[in-house]
Amino acid sequence: MKIAIRGGHNFLAKGACGLIDETIEDRKVYKAVIKNLIENNFEVLDVTPGDCDVNTDLKLGVDKANNFNADLFISIHFDKCYDKFDGPLGTGTWVCEKGGKAEIYAQNIVDTISEGTSLKNRGVKTNAKLYELNKTIMPAVIVEVCFCESKVDVDIYREKGPDLIGYLIAKGICKSVNKEISSDLPQVNVENTTNSQNNNLFKTNATAKVALDPRDNPSTNYKDLGEIYENERIKILAEVCDLKFFLPATYWQDTLNKESSPIWVNSKQTVLNVDTNATVINVLTELDARYTPSPDSNRMGYVKNQERLFVHKIENNYALATYLASEGYKTAWFTAEYIKLD
């Protein structure tokens, strides 16, 4: 069976943005779907276009799927409805019309995601006007993993992780063709559970220069979730972030004796000091800060020779690091050969 799959939008025609960024997260999920489908002997084609305008983005993905003569088309997205929302909104799928094979795939996918994560099940909806659904020549499903602005949804997504979501989508596809998935179930992110047992296990990488509000969203219109005191140590999360004056983080909640759920903090240099553990070296002009660990990624910004930054992790030839961009910190991918760890 041939399956075409893509991540929705791109970094020039970006998708929804709330507590998480749709484009950044759907890139993680669709790659996990591909991995699990290949492990289960499906023939898979990645039809995710590079950075381009929205019309080109849609056409390239659909054309590649049609030329591949795929038996199924899957497009991964994250939804958004409000500026912010504290309650659950859930996971859902879209098809062009009900009554065909696409509905079977869509129903099994949304049911499997909901059952495996506790995300609210929004079911299968129809929209014959969506390009990815009406221009494909095979059964096509758009998967909306969760809502970017829903605190409940995002907390669940961050806890379960994109690898599990990708596994569950693949499991739903397998179920639709009467096949048992043979991939190993990914482990859920247990970092918070481990850290909640002992403050000594809570690893930090930044200091609040002044008292900071832990925010429920990256804006000036937010709900204050607690208190981060002056000189308190916090943890900036290892997530790509290009929101100018905000970064995702966690802090230690003394009253609960555990690490907080992910929150947002002001990332201006005047109020936050992020640790450094690496130096930029051997750069003649500028080292690009990228949205994804790929030479084809759009550029977020840059650093110069001898600048200091904090490296969260290194994967293959790229380092995910937090760096000072103008007045505030951001987190991006850099070519690792130009980064020297202390």
Please provide a written account of the structure.
This protein starts with a strand and ends with a strand. It has helices at residues 22-39, 54-67, 101-117, 131-134, 151-160, 162-176, 191-195; strands spanning 2-7, 43-46, 72-79, 91-95, 121-126, 140-147, 206-208, 233-236, 246-250, 252-253, 258-259, 263-266, 272-274, 278-280, 287-290, 299-303, 308-315, 318-325, 328-335, 339-341. The chain folds into three domains: 2-176, 3-Layer(aba) Sandwich (Aminopeptidase), CATH 3.40.630.40; 191-273, Roll (SH3 type barrels), CATH 2.30.30.40; 276-341, SH3 type barrels, CATH 2.30.30. 46% of the residues are buried. The strands form five sheets. A six-stranded mixed β-sheet has the order 2-1-3-6-4-5, with helices on both faces. 24% of the residues lie in helices and 29% in strands. A hairpin with an 8-residue loop joins strand 15 (287-290) and strand 16. The radius of gyration is 21 Å and the shape is globular.
Helix content: 10-25%
CATH class of the largest domain: Alpha Beta
Q: Which structural class fits the helix and strand makeup?
A: alpha+beta
Strand coverage percent: 25-35%
CA-atom Rg in angstroms: 21 Å
Query: Biggest β-sheet: count, sense, barrel?
Result: 6 strands, mixed
Strand order of the largest sheet: 2-1-3-6-4-5
Label the overall shape: globular
Tally of DSSP helical segments: 7
Average of the residue pLDDT scores: 92
Keywords: Hydrolase, Plasmid
Organism: Clostridium perfringens
EC number: 3.5.1.28
Protein name: N-acetylmuramoyl-L-alanine amidase domain-containing protein
